[in-house]
Amino acid sequence: MVSRVSGRRDLEIGSMINFGEWLPDQPALNNTGATEAQNVIPAMKGYRCFRQLSPLSGAATNKILGMYAGKDDSGATTLYVGDSGKLYKFNASDSALTDISKSGGYTTGSGEKWRFAQFGETLIATNYSQAMQTITVAAGGLFADLGGTPPRAKFITVVRDQVLLANTHDSVDGEKPYRVWFSGINSATSWTPGTNLADYQDVVDAGDCTGLVGGEYAIILFEKAIVRASFVGAPLVYQFDKLTSDRGCTVPGSVASVGPSLVFFLAPDGFYMLRGNEIVPIGAQKINSWFLDRFKSANKDNVVSAVDPINQNVIWAYPSLNSSDGENDEIIVYNYHLNRWSYAEQATTAVAQLFTAGYTLEELDNISSSIETLPASLDDGVYQGGTFFFAGAKDKKVQSFTGDCLNATIETGEFNISAGRHSLINNVLPYVSAKVGQSPTVSASVGSRDRQIDTATFTSSSALGTDGYCPVRSAGAFHRVRLSLTGDFDVAQGVDVDAQQLGLR
Q1: Which terminal Cβ of the chain has fewer Cβ within 10 Å, N or C?
Q2: Residue 94 resides in a domain
Q3: Could you give the angle at the alpha carbon of 497 between the alpha carbons of 287 and 26, nearest 5°?
Q4: In whole angstroms, what is the distance from residue 304 CA to residue 318 CA?
């Protein structure tokens, strides 16, 4: 992993030091990946810029605690949003969040969130604190209490022809954090046990339920176990099979999925992926230690997560130790296709897969006064009806990840030009590409040290010159290169260095 070297003898000519996968849990010396990957997202051959949030809606009354895109039978999309006291509908005509709460609104308990599920054209919303809410997507109007006698629930999903609830509170038994309810067949309002296959099941030796994923079957995450629930019909209705009894999810907001066959979650010792029936550690020896040392676990109820299936990224927003109020101030990203990580300094109270309602040219005036200052290009899918986009929430507004690139920092592993010898680095050649019309600013600094027990000292950052090099001079036995990028870059792949051997010391 050395580059152009001049001096008494050549070692290797023109070898690029690649920005491999981010491995902060590995020693810096001979780290085959990157020791820093801040404000970027993983790419096939390096890293792309992480775009900050850009507002799409007006403000809610309080911080947003949940978002969902409902679709009617015609494919028309309606975006729903919840805060602590209200449920809203997004209006593309004026970008406003219109209050469509039931009379009197809501009181969402501390640490609770709004979670949604669609059953046919019926949208159901739950915040656990109060009766579940429902609205017909095509009909509009106001939310209302869900009919029948459903329990209150923290988690909701749909499996085949039934609504499933978990971590519930009912009028008979009260709070049951380990209970799973299922509605009657083809009915979201049938909740009488023994009627129309409605019933409930207690999982008493697995701790509290912390997540629920639906589809053809259900994956139910508990603090100490993960359970698969499969529909089998009368009399059992569902068969519950434990996939593991020695590991579970302890952070409810960390559960994200691509259907029930691919589920991501945070356990006490780090991040995992449930692939089918196999539990795969995805953060071990990579980022787990870095994250757990950085995570403000006292505010774990603020964690939110979602999957961006287009880019194959899982995003977890979390409060770091730098968060003065315990609110989410950072995001960690996992690309499940590349099996690579990164992170970003971006605050958000919610993340979700959404679909746009579509904008007319006149309606775009509500977002920006001119085409030139729109947060995304005019042909971006975020403005087209029914088009997928990945969203966050900040400043009480729905926002898209289409803003300016955050200032990025990528750092190589540490390398030694020649064993037992010191060397002088004279120049750094960054390999950073930009699309037509983009003009990012690139600069580099070098951290060097004489011994492994020493702390690396970094040079001042040096800007990219017209010759394509960043002039940097740094002497030592061990070196690492830190690249700083500002503006809209395409892919940062790695660096090359000009180095001169200095001999033994």
Answers
A1: C
A2: no
A3: 15
A4: 7
Amino acid at residue number 405 = C
* DSSP track, 293-334: HHB-GGGGGG-EEEEETTTTEEEEEE-BTT-SSS---EEEEE
Structural domain containing residue 43: 4-50+407-504
Q: What is the DSSP letter of 120?
A: T
For residue 417, the tally of other CB atoms under 10 A from its CB is 25
CB atoms within 10 A of CB 504: 8
DSSP character at residue 292: H
Q: What is the DSSP letter of 373?
A: G
For residue 313, the tally of other CB atoms under 10 A from its CB is 20
Q: Are 499 and 472 in contact (CB under 8 A)?
A: no
E-strand spans in 128-173? 133-136, 144-145, 152-159, 162-170
**Residues 300-338: tens digit of each pLDDT:** 999 999 999 999 999 999 999 999 999 999 999 999 999
Distances (CA, A) of 453 to 122, 412, 477, 478: 63, 19, 12, 11
Residue 479 lies in a domain: yes
Count of beta carbons in the 10 Å neighbourhood of residue 12? 11
The C-alpha atoms of residue 364 and residue 215 are separated, in whole angstroms, by 36
What is the value of pTM for the model shown?
A: 0.91
CA dist 147 and 188 (Å) reads: 8
d(CA 156, CA 171): 18
Residue 356 lies in a domain: no
Q: Higher pLDDT residue, 360 or 315?
A: 315
| CB 470 within 8 Å of CB 427 | yes
Number of folded domains that form the chain: 1
| CATH number of the domain to which 33 belongs | 2.60.120
| Contact (CB, 8 A) for 144 and 102 | yes
| Contact of 95 with 383, CB cutoff 8 Å | no
- Give the DSSP per-residue string, 242-271: EEESS-----GGG-EESSTTEEEEEETTEE
From the centroid of its chain, how far is CA 476?
39
Element of type H or E holding 442 = strand 441-449
**pLDDT tens figures, 143-188:** 999 999 999 999 999 999 999 999 999 999 999 999 999 999 999 9
3-class secondary-structure state, position 364 = helix
Which tokens belong to 477?
A: 């036995």
Dihedral of alpha carbons 312, 318, 323, 327, sign: positive
Structural domain includes residue 89: no
Give the pairing type, strands 122-126 and 133-136: antiparallel
